[in-house]
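Troubleshooting log. The previous structure file for this entry was overwritten by mistake, so regenerating from the original sequence record. Sequence copied from the archived sheet and checked twice against the printout by T.R.
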Amino acid sequence: MIERILLRLAVLARNPPSPRKALIVGCIVALTALVAGIDMLGWWPDWAQVEPRTRRRTILPQ
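Regenerated output below.
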């Protein structure tokens, strides 16, 4: 698996992405990190929280 990653990095080093593509990917990573940080600090609003679903399935209603 490490070899595959190193080969992909070598290809990326030989043919780097355009500056626009790098900027788009960087903005997406930064936005994701910002949202994760806000959630970890507890500043995420309650209306945006997802309630966990139960894994139990019922075949027939009771």
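The chain is about 60% helix and 0% strand. Archived copy saved in two places this time.
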